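Progress narrative, work stream C.
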Amino acid sequence: MGEVPNILFEDNHLLVAVKPSGVLSQEDPSGDPDMLTLLKAYLVEKYKKPGEAYLGLLHRLDRPVRGVMVFAKTSKCASRISEQIRNRTVSKKYRAIVYGSFSEEKGQIRSFLLKDPKTNLVKVFADRKTAPKEAKESFLEYEVLGEGRIAGVPVTLLSIDLHTGRSHQIRSQLSSIGHPIVGDRKYGKGPNRFAGDILLESYHLEVDHPVSHERMVFELPLADEEPWKQFAKE
């Protein structure tokens, strides 16, 4: 079994863990480590289960993105949380370090996205008139948390509230307004070459417990490493 991801919460119904950057959400043809396989192996070992453990994948994070993920340990819980996701009562917030500065403290992006399966890239259209009919309306809000520099280049730390969960939505929409995420190899055309991972993480997740209905909140602290730590409040 590979290294077990950091587990934030576990009971008979749910498992909440932190996906490291570079780890897949679920298995793909590459055979590289993925969260679902690692956590199933952890459950088999911990509870001495014969055969394979059940674990429901409820949402995904792009491979280079670090962040909080919730999994269901029963099919009933999987269906209840999936319903919450459809009804948009699951709240997810992201942190990103992007190139450039913002004149306003808060803003929003509403555009239409269409993913090309051949290139695995998303095209952004400003409005319905210019977008193909297959394009999906996508909406996010952002708030400026701080300003800093990477290799002398101005950057901004954003908190992003994702209202629609489209593939590559944050990455493509921020790039479309001239603020690509630092380290983004797909959509980033920043003013310098940043050699590290994409500076995007899912840091906040709220979900109603599928049995007790208690509102549960999970949040990752700001990483104590550069370039994140330059934004730490004194």
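Work stream C, second folded protein:
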Amino acid sequence: MDTPSTTGMVANCVAYGADGHRIGSITLDEISNFLAQPGGFVWVGLVEPDEPLLEKLQVQFGLHELAVEDAHTAHQRQKIESYGDSLFIVVQTAQTTGAKIAFGETHIFLGKRYLLSVRHGASQPYVPARRNCEQAPEHLAFGPSYALYAILDLIVDNYLPIVQDFRKELQELEHDVFEDVSNRDVTRRLYDMQRDLLTLKLAATPLQDILGQLVRLHPEVIRDEVRPYFRDVQDHVTRVSDAINAMREMLGAAMNVNLSLITVRQNEVVKRLAGWAALLAAPTLLASWYGMNFRDMPELARPDAYPIIIGVTAAICVTLFVILKRAKWL
């Protein structure tokens, strides 16, 4: 029977009949007895299991030791591998946590009469997938391959809302991009969105190859009746990938526009500083001339020299101010 130490790691362990109807929950120790009977299959869901639990299920289902090692270690690349009459599939999951995307992994063991899913990291529970399957027992009668479709469909369906959330956020950031005052937070957020979308693309793209194999290959565990469902999920992945590519292009354009506007604003500041420097250059030059300690200086012989110089300086300054103002340097 299940021990208290494994209770938190076993999300579900349910047996289904050959007609697709739910028989009921069973313990891990009862799996071998159920599989010894003809018909039906077992659907087990684990959450970050420890090594002893995986070894126990390895014995129950006859799992390959390399696949079990990968499932325990996690941090695997997305892939599909065949071990005799069973498949080992690794897919990456995504979940929005606050303003960031958290990524996790799901490792799936698929056999003729069992489906074992192992969740690591951020991932939505697969309860909705199981519930939808149980509401359509005529489809679940196709066996564990249909349960695999339900899990993959749920994973892919969780991708698109994330892209849509990013699209809404990008629309809000576009208003900040065109504000008069440059905002470093806008640039940082655009960069973070580009990074997250790249990671999401790396999660979605390999699924196209995995689903392509499920559509065409592995007749020993994939029923022909289920292949159209995998093709539908493949179409969803393609749509997600296209949406991600479009969002990345929009983010790249927004990033370039933001950086360009920052450069333009900096140039405007430099122009204004240069304009005021030019405006102050004329009185500075005249003052430096008449501040020299020479013997023959106009202001020493003529009492009106200083007012004349002040007037000339003011006239030059006003003229420069008008010229620079028209040139939009001030």
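Residues 227-290 form the longest helix (64 residues). No further action is required on this item.
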